[in-house]
Design goal:
mainly alpha; Rhopdopsin 7-helix transmembrane proteins; 0% strand
Amino acid sequence: MKRRALFLAAAVFITAAFAFDPVAQAPDYHQFADTRRFLGIANFWNVVTNLPFLYAGVAGLKYLSTNEPRGILPSLVPAYRAFFAGVLLTAIGSARYHIAPDNDSLLWDRLPMTLVFMSLFSIIVGEHISGTLGRRVLLPLLLVGVASAVYWSVTERLGIGDLRPYVLVQFMPMLLIPLVLLMYSSHFDRTAFLWGMIVVYTAAKLVEHFDYAVYAFGELLSGHSVKHLAAATASLLFLYGLRFRQPRQPFALGAGHAH
């Protein structure tokens, strides 16, 4: 019954997204509030605020390479690695994009982010519903994520830009994950950091929307730069959770854990 409810919710999100006509990238999307140049780097703060992503990605991959990393399910190691690799690559892709923002460079910003969104959803499914299911859906989800970004880029070049698949890849996991957290218990003893990730990422999207307004408040950092810092904080919260949580009981790979 719970899985049916999740499938129904996903179907509603997908149907709602494709009920609208194709949505092209807004022409003014690349016009960010803070265009200051320092040390010869254009759009300096939007570039360097990607460094926390780099740190989180490297730290996460390093942690997973230790002999006995706590707080993970062995069957989901590829998903954890995909998550932190995506975070690391987001630092590189986003920095490249912000040096010279346009649709072509934006693709390299969005591609690694799809790895983060989809691997995280695979992890949540594996830790809360079924380890076997989480492992099996990882590759299909990653392929769908990458395809959504490539599809957007190709349609933009053809003059019929369509963001709908990419928007689904970015936002549907963030809508379904809270449902999974509410409907199923975790194999691990701490889930507050997952809710923290959701709150922080939501805040990141809000300040991104108010890019110019945040920058006008003192002209220290723009909303987009703050968004980078907040989103990187979300990935660091995830690493914190992996380091300090403990399994509640021996885990049966295919078992779900219902409340």
